Structures are given as C-alpha cells and as structure tokens.
Amino acid sequence: MENKYLAKILPFLNEIEEDRRKQFEEYFRTAPMWLMDTFVVEELEKGTVFVQEGEPADMIFFIGKGLIKATDYRIYGINYDFTMFDKVYAFGGMEVIINLDKYQTTLQTVTECTVLKIPKEGFKKWLDSDIVALQQESRLMGEYLLEQARDSRMLLFLQGADRVAFLLMKRYRKYAQGGVLRMKGDRQELSDFTGLCVKTISRSIKKFKENGMITTQGSNIMINYEQYRRMEEMISGILAEDL
C-alpha cells in the first residue's frame, strides 16, 4: 500500500530507471503516512544552489532525477567540488544525525533536477521513532563518508595528470553505459573537481588523447572499457610505488 501511495505522490518514480526507483521505495519502506504527506517535489534548473554551507539546515533533500555536486568553500576560500551524487541520499540527513543546526557543505545542480523536499523536523521525528529508518540513514551516511575518506587518501599520492585520470576512472565506474563513458570535456569543471588549474587539465587531456587513453569528439570525452582499464592499471602502479 505504501509503495502505491509513494508512486502516487512522487510521479517521477515512474520516469526513472528501475534500480533508482527501488532505492526510493526501499528508503521510504517504513515511512509513515503523515511524513509522506509533507513531501514537496520541486524542479530545479541546472546550476541552482539549493543548499548553502553555513545556512540553517531546515530542509532535507532527495534527488529524484538529475545530478548534483558538493562544493567546499572552507579551504582558503577556494571552491573545491569534491564529489557528484547519483544515489538516493538524504542531503541534510547527516546534520540531523549529528545534531548540527547548519549545513556543512554547498550543493548545486549539475543538470536539471527533480528534487524531493522534506521538512527537517518531520524527518527527525521519523528517525527518532523508527529504528529501521535510523539504521538505514546511518548506514548510507557511513558508506558515503568512507568513500570520501578513501578518495582523499588516494589523492594524497596523486598529482597532475594522475589526479585527472583518477577522476575519469570514478566517472567511468559511475556513469559508463554500454561500456563507454561519454562526458563533456569542460576544463573548468574538471579543474573544480580535481583542485588543479585549467592549464594542467588541458595538458592532461592532450596527453591522454595522444596516448590513446581517451577519445575526443568535439568538446566531448569518451572512454571505453579498454581505456578505463589502462587508466586503472596506471593508477594502481603509481599507488603501489608510493605505498
């Protein structure tokens, strides 16, 4: 009954891939009707900042469709885009669990997005009264933080083009379809995600293309499985030497 009701109040569930729809259904499997009655769905344009670091954490967000990125401005005032999200996470959920009043990072849409909004107090009331929901949110938050910690340790050993290769590997694992990753070769975007200057990004892309590790088509970058494996072997070798 709840899944049918969920699909009724969240019509975008009928428009997304099955795995993602199942993630939503699993996340809200034990959600009470009173909580679902507070759901608000909003359409956001590309480039919209919908969570601002330091502002009151009064709303929980779930991404129904589209991609977002997290940006940290606390490193000498420089923006550093440290990850992109494509799973069903409760953005603002960490602040609820560790009892923080303000958002700890900035979230911005990378594409047009369909966003589910839930008032913080209702979300907190649900977690406080439902151990299954609390355990689920804690597990997802732990998995995310563990992934970020691992990536941070990896980046300590990587510089220049190697850091770009690491980012491309992660993008391939998350977004490749039919064994091929197709992405825009936006140098500034890659610069923001790696913390490298645009000039270094351009040199790295040129190097990878000359070595046959990527293929370009206009301003787009394409990576097939063989190219991905070459990058993976290269990064594994560098880390083995440093460790």
Largest sheet: 4 strands, antiparallel
Helix content: 40-55%
Rg calculated over all Cα atoms: 19 Å
Approximately how much beta-strand content do the residues carry? 15-25%
Major β-sheet strand ordering: 2-6-4-5
Count of runs of 4 or more consecutive helical residues: 10
Q: First CA to last CA: what distance? A: 53 Å
What is the string of helix and strand elements?
Answer: HHHEEEEEHEEHHHEHHEEH
List how many beta strands DSSP finds: 10
The overall pLDDT, averaged over residues, is 85
Shape: elongated
Low-confidence stretches: 74-82
Based on helices, strands and strand pairing, what is the structural class? Answer: alpha+beta
Domain HTH crp-type: 158-227
Protein name: Crp/Fnr family transcriptional regulator
Pfam family, one: HTH_Crp_2
Keywords: DNA-binding, Transcription, Transcription regulation
Description of the molecule:
This protein is α+β, with helices and mostly antiparallel strands and 243 residues long. 49% of the residues lie in helices and 23% in strands. The chain contains 10 helices and 10 strands. The strands form 3 sheets. A 4-stranded antiparallel beta sheet has the order 2-6-4-5. It has a 3-stranded antiparallel beta sheet with strand order 1-7-3. Strands 8-10-9 form a 3-stranded antiparallel beta sheet. β4 and β5 form a beta hairpin. α7 crosses α9. The radius of gyration is 19 Å and the shape is elongated. It starts with a helix and ends with a helix.
